[in-house]
Each structure stands twice: as C-alpha cells, then as structure tokens.
C-alpha cells in the first residue's frame, strides 16, 4: 500500500443511478483465479456493442475523457454483488477516485481497502462537477485527503467525510491484515471464552461436514 | 445495562476489540466460500505464508460456475471455470477446510447448503464473499457479504475489521393474502423504501406476519433485504426457527441443548432498544409483485401500471427512462399480460423445497406455453432429492420444464445458462440488473408461483386468477 495525500485529474461523468457491480464487471470476466486482465471487462456492455465494437456515445469511449483518472457517478454506485473484481477493474483501467452522491456498502469497503478513493458529495455538487467535466476546457478536480476537501475550478471548496480509519489507510498506507495479525493473541483469548460459552459454534463447519 | 437491539447484542458478543468509534474487530463463527470470490484471497495467504488458523469455522461450496445440465457426472467444460473449481478444492485441502465439491451429492448454492447442514445457528456471525449472506438472519444469525480482501482477512484471522451499522426495524402485521408470499412482501418493501433505503442499516423484521412465516419463507425475505442496500437482516429466533435448527443439528442434544436454548432465549431486541429508523407495513395489502425495471426497487403490484417518466418524482425521471429503454415496456401500460419467453425457477432466494412445492402446485396438470423455455434449478442436492421423492420433478417435466442439477445458474449466468439478447424472463431470482441473466435479456423478478403461472400462460400473469 502506498501513501496518498491528494488525487487530482479530470473526470468522466457516468450519469447512471444504481450502477451495479454486474455492469461494472460482467460475469464473463470473473473466471480468473488472479486479479489480472480486468481492464477489458470494465463496464463492458456500456463500452462495447454485441459485436465487440466500441460504442462512441458512451463517455468512457470519448476522446475528451481519454486522460480522465476520476469518475463522477450516480447515487448508490456499486450496488449489488460483492465482487471485488469491480474495484480491481476500475483501478486497472486507471480510475483513482470516484465522486458520487452515495455508494453501496460492500463496494465502499472493497474500494477503500484497495485505495480506490470514494467521495460522497450531495447530488447538486456532483451534478455541478459533471457539468464542468463536460466542458471542453474542463478544470482539474483536486481531492485533498488530508483536509477532506474537493476543489474544482471556480467552485467553492466542497467538504466530504470519510472515517479516520479509511483516511489513515490513504495517508499512511496501512496494511490492514498485517495490523490485525498482531492481535492474534487477543483473538485466541476471545475464542477460548466464546467457545467455552457456546461450544456448539466451535468447528461449526467441520462438525457437520468432514474434511476430505 | 442499557437496552440493546438484537443486532447490537450479536455484535457485542463477537467483538474481540474495539478499534475506534466506528469499527470493531469482529469474530466470525462461520465463513462460507465459493470458487470465484476466494482464489485471490488464498493467493494472498500464500504470499504471507499463512496457514488458516481455524479451518473448522470455514466451508466452501462450488456453486456459481457449475453447469446444471442433467448429466450423471458433471464436467465443467469451460477451462477457466474448471480451474476455479479445482483450485478451490486444492486450497481447501491444503488448509483443511470442508468442501462441497462439483460432484458431491449435497452440492448446491452456498446459502441453501449451509443451513440445511446445520451450520447456521442462532446468534452466530456468518460471512461470505457473496452479498446474499443476509439470508441467515432468518435463524437469528447476523450474515453479510464481503469482498475478496476481507475473505483473505477472515481466512487469516477469523475476524473482520467491521464498521458497525445502525438498526432499522420493519414491523409487518396482518396476514399475507392467498397467492402471495414473502417474496411479494420483500419486493413490496424494497419498492417502498428504495434500493438504498436500508443503506447503513441492519434491518430487524418483526410483527405477526413475520411470525407466521416458515423458516424457508424467512430465508427469502432476509436474502433479498440486501437489495434495499442493507448490511444485514435479522429475525429474532422463535420456536419456528429453533425447531428448524435443532432438527438440523444432531450435535445439539442433552445438556448442550439446554444451554443453547437458554442462551438463544436472549436473542431479541430489548423492549426500549433504540432503532434509528422504523417502518410499518400491513401484510394484508400485499399483492403478487413483479419488477418492471432494472433495479429491484422498480417493482409493481401485478394490478399496477408501468410508470411514466414524466409523472414520477424528478429524481427518478432519468432512471425510469433508462430502465424502460432497457426493459422495452410501454410507460403507463399494464405489466400483466406482458409476453415472456423464458422462466427460471431457482437461486438462493427461491430454490428451496417449499418454493418448488408452490411452483409445482401451479404447474400440475398444465403445459408450458408454446414458445416458452422453462427450467427449474433446485437450490441443492438435498432439495433435489426431496423434490424427486415427492414426485415434483415429474410434475415439472410432464409440463415441459427442464429439471436441472443444483447451482446458482441463471440467477447471475456465470455458467452456461445464459439468456440471449431480447429474451424476457420470469425469474424467481433477486436481481433484475441490466445484463445480469445475459446481455440484453430482460428479467422480471417474482415469486415461484407467479413464475410458474407465467410458464403456463406465456405471459406475466396474476397467479390468483388461475384458480388453483
């Protein structure tokens, strides 16, 4: 994990509410056992027609958004399936942050854990950013992770909230699992008491199903 | 001691340590895995040289990519999918994790398999790299979906860094009318509160209509609560739930049984516990429901009319237009009578024995309409065996349905059960997203009985009009 203090660049507006992870990373791209090769799958049905030809009307295919590294989305972005492939695909495509009115919970947790920054702003502010992004001279959006602020052109700075834990994951590049592993003694002490109280949940899978 | 909701009680009893104001290190009693959201997590363990410390709290099921054709020995012909299955078996064997493999007679959809093998017990925390893990609230267990990074975290520590949710209570009183089910109830609720109406919340259901539901009907209800954006669903375990659990858990007997019963008695929300949000619904108003759009909250009673974009609230205009452009329905027209070409009865929402009984009850003595392809994919090997014992397979096949082997199948179409463009499907699944069942295919979510009725008439039909 790297340290990230600011993310800046231009953004592609995607005006779709409830953009679900089935659309972000369709089923046919979920058959790997590693994280590679997801660039082609990102928003596949929106980017390509049934013959595999580029759909010129879709924003991500337009020349003016070619160098965009941010995305502006609709509400409940990332709803549906828990597939983290959606997040990996966005990152592999070059998306560093998404600004939208709201994000679905599992997607939110998956994204922040992978340092794909998700910023919730009120619908009107997202709409204003979309309008600016659509201009030929679209100004850069700057997301300041230390001060939790979004600035863009002449717009007044917009504040956003993320949890302290998530903020530190960006600012310090925290290894979450590494940190949790340092609590293994606590975990083992917990399980001893937990199973003494509820012996019927100890090895709950193995007691019903022998391991071959 | 302050009053607590059932949700808070379960979180408290699984908190290893408090991380900060919002997050706890949460112990997970059971972790379920499938073949497609776990491989990268196992790779991560290998990179850190970690052996799973508590393998007996984990179980895997090959469920999503498996073909469901009615052949004796299943062979996964798609090479990458086959590799996912063998890779899962290899990972489970390496770490000593129990597995329901491709040709195991008890294989099925993970959320159907786990409770029928007694792995879900009241008060547990159950997690899985699959959003429909909310299903287990039906037995008073807190279940929720996680991503692959978190799968790795659970495998390595049997815990999660967990952001605690707020509590919502949904009370449903009254009696569900004949011809309606918990599927219709949850579709109605999602329609009312919206696809993100429960975002940030764990929903506890209560009320006389919930008390009257069977455990399987409760699975359906809790399973689909995630489609309102919720982080979990719960029903306080009552006698119905406890009878179900004890019947599946031969290890809970004698003194253990008495201890378990006395602890499960405390699994309820205290009288004056605080819920951040509350809703009340009347079950007696529920009609059979059908989705018209591309999000589960775009749903109608069967007697209703497809919305007109210019007549909906301004914030829904764009999404209504986009949905109708995809589902090709006439704005303002009736949903009833819409011709369908495919019927799918299956999924972790509606592929249990009671679902198949309800559907076969409608199908019996009828034929699948001309031009319609209809299939039943049982939720598990156990469901399939039971259905065959009851002769339901014969009823379906005599009517012209395909009787398949268990798996997730056409709910998300990761295997070879994929709809072609433009095909309209009456489906007992949980998501009507664009392209979910196949690119350009149109999904109408409904109950098993409603899907069965559509199979017979070839169009979206009010099952109450069929007269069975």
Spell out the blueprint of helices and strands.
The complex is a heterodimer of chains A (212) and B (468).
Chain A: E1 6-9, E2 11-13, H1 21-24, H2 44-47, E3 70-72, H3 85-93, E4 97-100, H4 105-113, E5 117-120, H5 123-134, E6 141-144, E7 149-152, E8 158-159, H6 164-171, H7 176-181, H8 184-197
Parallel strand pairs in A: 2-3, 3-4, 4-5
Antiparallel strand pairs in A: 1-6, 6-7, 7-8
Chain B: H1 6-13, E1 15-18, E2 23-27, E3 30-33, H2 39-48, E4 58-61, H3 79-95, E5 99-100, H4 110-116, E6 125-128, E7 142-145, H5 148-157, E8 159-163, E9 166-173, H6 182-193, E10 201-206, H7 208-211, H8 215-225, E11 232-235, H9 239-248, H10 254-264, E12 277-282, E13 289-291, E14 299-301, H11 314-327, E15 342-345, H12 353-363, E16 373-376, H13 381-389, H14 392-399, E17 402-403, E18 424-427, E19 442-445, H15 448-457
Parallel strand pairs in B: 3-4, 3-6, 4-5, 6-7, 9-10, 9-12, 10-11, 15-16, 15-18, 16-17, 18-19
Antiparallel strand pairs in B: 1-2, 2-8, 13-14
Helix pairs in contact in B: 2-5, 6-8, 12-14, 12-15
Task: Describe what this molecule looks like in 3D.
The complex is a heterodimer of chains A (212) and B (468). Chain A has one domain: Aconitase, domain 4 (Alpha-Beta Barrel). Chain A has helices at 21-24, 44-47, 85-93, 105-113, 123-134, 164-171, 176-181, 184-197, and strands at residues 6-9, 11-13, 70-72, 97-100, 117-120, 141-144, 149-152, 158-159. In chain A, the strands form 2 sheets. In chain A, strands 1-6-7-8 form a 4-stranded antiparallel β-sheet, with helices on one face. The model of chain A has no long low-confidence stretch (mean pLDDT 96). Helix content of chain A is 31%, strand content 13%. Chain A has 212 residues and is of the alpha/beta class. Chain A is globular and about 65 Å long. Chain B is α/β, with parallel strands linked by helices. Chain B has 15 helices and 19 strands. Chain B has helices spanning 6-13, 39-48, 79-95, 110-116, 148-157, 182-193, 208-211, 215-225, 239-248, 254-264, 314-327, 353-363, 381-389, 392-399, 448-457, and strands spanning 15-18, 23-27, 30-33, 58-61, 99-100, 125-128, 142-145, 159-163, 166-173, 201-206, 232-235, 277-282, 289-291, 299-301, 342-345, 373-376, 402-403, 424-427, 442-445. Chain B has a 5-stranded parallel β-sheet with strand order 5-4-3-6-7, sandwiched between helices. In chain B, strand 15 (342-345), helix 12 (353-363) and strand 16 (373-376) form a beta-alpha-beta unit. The longest helix of chain B has 17 residues, at 79-95. Chain B starts with 5 loop residues before the first helix and ends in an 11-residue tail after the last helix. Chains A and B meet through helix 4, helix 7 and helix 8 of A and strand 2, helix 2, helix 3, strand 5 and helix 5 of B.
């Amino acid at each position: 994990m790297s340290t990230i203090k600011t993310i800046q660049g231009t953004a592609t507006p995607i005006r779709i509410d409830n953009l679900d992870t089935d659309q972000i990373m369709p089923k046919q791209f979920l058959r790997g056992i590693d994280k590679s090769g997801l660039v082609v799958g990102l928003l596949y049905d929106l980017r390509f027609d049934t013959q595999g030809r580029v759909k010129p009307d879709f924003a991500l295919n337009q020349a003016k958004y070619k160098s965009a590294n941010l995305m502006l989305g609709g509400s409940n972005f990332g709803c549906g399936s828990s597939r983290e492939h959606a997040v990996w695909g966005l990152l592999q495509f070059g998306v560093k942050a998404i600004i939208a009115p709201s994000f679905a919970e599992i997607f939110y947790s998956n994204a922040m854990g992978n340092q794909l920054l998700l910023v919730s702003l009120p619908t009107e502010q997202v709409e204003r950013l979309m309008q600016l992004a659509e201009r030929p001279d679209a100004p850069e959006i700057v997301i300041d992770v230390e001060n939790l602020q979004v600035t863009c052109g002449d717009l007044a700075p917009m504040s956003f909230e993320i949890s302290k834990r998530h903020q530190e994951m960006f600012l310090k590049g925290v290894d979450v699992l590494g940190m949790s592993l340092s609590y293994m003694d606590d975990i083992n002490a917990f399980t001893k008491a937990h199973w003494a109280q509820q012996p019927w949940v100890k090895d709950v899978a193995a007691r019903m199903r022998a391991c071959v | 001691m302050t009053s607590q909701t059932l949700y808070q009680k379960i979180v408290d009893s699984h908190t290893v340590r408090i991380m900060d104001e919002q997050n706890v290190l949460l112990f997970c009693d059971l972790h379920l895995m499938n073949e497609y959201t776990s491989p990268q997590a196992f790779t991560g363990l290998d990179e850190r040289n970690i052996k799973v410390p508590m393998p007996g709290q984990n179980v895997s099921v090959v469920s999503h990519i498996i073909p469901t054709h009615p052949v004796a020995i299943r062979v996964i012909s798609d090479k990458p999918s086959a590799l996912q299955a063998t890779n899962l078996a290899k990972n489970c064997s390496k770490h000593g994790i129990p597995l329901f493999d491709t040709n195991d007679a008890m294989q099925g959809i993970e959320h159907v398999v786990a409770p029928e093998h007694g792995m879900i017990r009241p008060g547990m925390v159950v997690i899985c790299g699959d959003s429909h893990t909310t299903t287990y609230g039906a037995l008073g267990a807190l279940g929720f979906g996680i991503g692959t990074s978190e799968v790795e975290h659970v495998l390595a520590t049997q815990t999660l860094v967990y952001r605690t949710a707020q509590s919502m209570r949904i009370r449903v009183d009254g009696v569900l009318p004949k011809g309606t089910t918990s599927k219709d109830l949850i579709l109605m609720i999602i329609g009312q509160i919206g696809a993100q109406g429960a975002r940030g919340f764990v929903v506890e259901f209560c009320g006389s209509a919930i008390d009257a539901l069977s455990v399987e009907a409760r699975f359906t209800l809790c399973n689909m609560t995630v489609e309102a954006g919720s982080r979990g669903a719960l029903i306080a375990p009552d006698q119905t739930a406890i009878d179900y659990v004890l019947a599946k858990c031969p290890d809970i007997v004698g003194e253990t049984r008495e201890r378990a019963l006395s602890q499960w008695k405390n699994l309820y929300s205290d009288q004056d516990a605080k819920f951040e949000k509350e809703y009340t619904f009347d079950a007696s108003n529920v009609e059979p429901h059908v989705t018209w759009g591309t999000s589960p909250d775009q749903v109608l009673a069967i007697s209703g009319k497809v919305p007109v974009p210019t007549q909906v609230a301004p914030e829904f205009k764009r999404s209504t237009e986009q949905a109708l452009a995809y589902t090709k329905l006439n704005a303002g027209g009736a949903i009833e009578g819409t011709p369908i070409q495919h019927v799918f009865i299956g999924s972790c929402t509606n592929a249990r024995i009671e679902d198949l009984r309800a559907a076969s009850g409608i199908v019996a003595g009828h034929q699948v309409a001309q031009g319609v392809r209809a299939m039943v994919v049982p939720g598990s090997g156990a469901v399939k065996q039971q259905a065959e014992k009851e002769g339901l397979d014969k009823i379906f096949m005599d009517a012209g349905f395909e009787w398949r082997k268990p798996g997730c199948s056409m709910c998300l179409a990761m295997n070879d059960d994929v709809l072609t463009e433009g095909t309209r499907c009456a489906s007992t699944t949980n998501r009507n997203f664009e392209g979910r069942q196949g690119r350009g295919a149109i999904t109408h979510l409904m109950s098993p009985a409603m899907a069965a009725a559509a199979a017979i008439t070839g169009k979206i039909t009010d099952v109450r009009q069929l007269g069975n």
